[in-house]
Amino acid sequence: MNPVSPLDNVRIVLSHTSHPGNIGATARAMKTMGLSKLYLVNPKRFPDSEADARASNARDILGSAQVCTHLDEAVRDTHLAAALTARPRDLPHPTLSARQAAMALVRQARQQPVALLFGRESAGLTASEISQCQLTVQIPANPAYSSLNLAAAVQIMAYELRMALDESVMHSAARLPELASLHEVEGFHRHLEQIMITSGFLDPKQPKRLMRRMRRLFARTRLEKEEVNILRGLLSAVDVRKPD
Question: Where is coiled-coil annotated (predicted)?
Fold first, then answer.
C-alpha cells in the first residue's frame, strides 16, 4: 500500500550528532514540512532536555525517533539514499543540487523508503558512510563561507522535499523499476569483494580504495533488485573456490 504522502517514506538520518539542540531543531524543521521519520546513529546525548526544548511542538518526532548503533541499521530497508556533503571528494558519486536530490528522493518515495543522511557538525559524513549512498547532495552556498548549521541544512532540504511534492505529481502514475534495497546492495558488494580477493584480483591488505571505486561505479547505476540477483548469480558461477 502506498503511503498517504511520499514524505511518509522519507527518513532523515543524523549520524553521530554532538549537540542535542541540533536534534531538537531538526525535529522542528522536519515537522514544519511534513516529515516525521527521524533516525539517529550514535548520538552523543539523546534523549536530552535541550533537544526537547529546541523541538518545541515537534517532541512527538523525538519520541518516535529510532536510535541506531550503526548506519546499516538506519538505512537497511531503504532503496535510495542520498548523502549531504559540502566537501569535494575524489571519485564522487553523482552529485545533485538540493532541488535535484529532493525531486529524485520524492519520486522514489512514492513506491519505496528512501533516506537523506546528514553527518557530524564538525566533519560531516565519513567516506565510508557516503559510500553506502547512491547520491551525494550539495546545497548551493557562498563558496567563501559554505558552512551551514546542521539543523539549517535539514530545514533547507525539508523545504525542497516539500516543494518537490507538487513537481512530482506528473510522474506519480509512472511505475519506477524496483530498486534493490541498500541491504541487498551491501550484500552484493561484500560478495564482490570476497570473489575479487579469492580470485587474486584484489589484495586483501589494501582493499579500500579499489572497493570504493567499485561502490561508486555501481552507485551510478542505482541497481535494481533483479540486477543484483543476476550479478550475484554471476559471482557464484565464477567462484574459484567451487570444486570442479
Answer: none
HEC letters along 190-240: HHHHHHHHHCCCCCCCCCHHHHHHHHHHHHCCCCEHHHHHHHHHHHHHCCC
What was the pLDDT predicted at 69?
A: 97
Assigned CATH class of 6-171: alpha beta
What value does the mean pLDDT take over residues 129-148?
A: 90
Considering the segment(s) 182-237 as one domain, its CATH architecture is Orthogonal Bundle (1.10)
By residue count, the chain amounts to: 244
Task: Give CATH 1.10.8.590 domain extents, the chain.
Answer: 182-237
